[in-house]
Amino acid sequence: MRFSWLFCLMAAVCPPIHAQQTMVFSAVQDTLISDINQVIIRDAYNRLGIKVVIKAAPAARALQQSNSGKYDGELFRIANIHKKYTNLMMIPVVSYEVEIRVYSKLKEFKVAGWDSLKPYKVGIERGVVFSDIATKGMDRQVVNTVQQLFKILYMKRVDIVVTDVWSALGALHALQQEGISTKEIRALSPKVMVIQLHHYLHKKHKALIPKVSQAIQSSIQAGVVKKAESNIFSQYSLGKTAP
After folding, report:
1. CB contact at 8 A, 238 and 182
2. Would the pLDDT of 70 be above 60?
3. What is the rounded CA–CA span in Å between residue 59 and residue 96?
4. Domain that holds residue 155
5. For residue 235, what pLDDT is reported?
6. Which of 67, 115, 137, 165 has the fewest CB neighbours in a 10 Å radius?
7. If you ran DSSP here, which 8-state letter would residue 117 be given?
8. Does 117 map to a domain?
């Protein structure tokens, strides 16, 4: 009886020897680019024996949560946001590259860099750093989610919107699921830019950066990115060519 009581007490106060570590990362909600990056980052951390939990939120709030230390880091962001959000540390390995395009319903023009957008009312997503910086001083409307971005384009509240090709695919698919026709919405050419994305850790996890960097590189070399892209596109294809 005494042994049984002592065993129960030890079980209550001592964690299992092989308990898997869990890390929680914030991410931009309701975007396919988040879905792709989740696959990459989960695979990388699995190589380290660490379970990943994702907490999705609007882009601006997600950054606030990761920078505050509420979570262990940020799933993905563009390079160098740690210069503004100083509690975050950038993983040096590029985890993903994605095209940024301009989408229009009524306007048709050749995209020649960001300056070519100045004559138009531009829609961007709040908290998405690259588009916020690039469109400063322009006539613009800022919304909380990429779905809202394409809704204001559909309703002609803006002339154009700017986002990555995967987030656009997911948002257009969501509109179609609501019974809204997206056939008049198109991507203009050429792409406005290509951005490189990085995973970020809160500074309390600085010691993990070398291991996480190597794990992400290993995941990329193993073909995880292409598998994630193919899987996402097969689920969300709009019957058009890949983004």
Report:
1. yes
2. yes
3. 18
4. 97-193
5. 84
6. 137
7. G
8. yes
CA distance 208 to 196: 21
pTM for this structure?
0.81
Domain membership flag for residue 242: no
Q: What is the pLDDT of residues 7-34, one digit of tens each?
A: 443 344 444 444 579 999 999 988 899 9
Whether 12 and 92 map to the same domain: the answer is yes
Tell whether 151 and 35 lie within a shared domain: no
Token pair recorded at residue 200 = 């970020």
Give the CA count within 13 Å in the CB-facing half-sphere of 168.
Answer: 25
| The pair of three-digit structure tokens given for residue 128, joined into one six-digit string | 């998405």
Judge residue 234's burial from the number of C-beta atoms within 10 Å of its C-beta, 0-12 exposed, 13-18 middle, 19 or more buried: exposed
Rounded Cα–Cα distance for residues 28 and 56 (Å): 6
Which residues, listed in sequence order, are joined to residue 195 by a DSSP beta bridge? 98
**34 and 170 Cβ atoms separated by less than 8 Å:** no
Tally of domains in the chain: 2
- 36: phi > 0 → left, psi -120 to 50 → alpha, else beta; which? alpha
Nearest 5°: phi and psi at 206? -50, -40
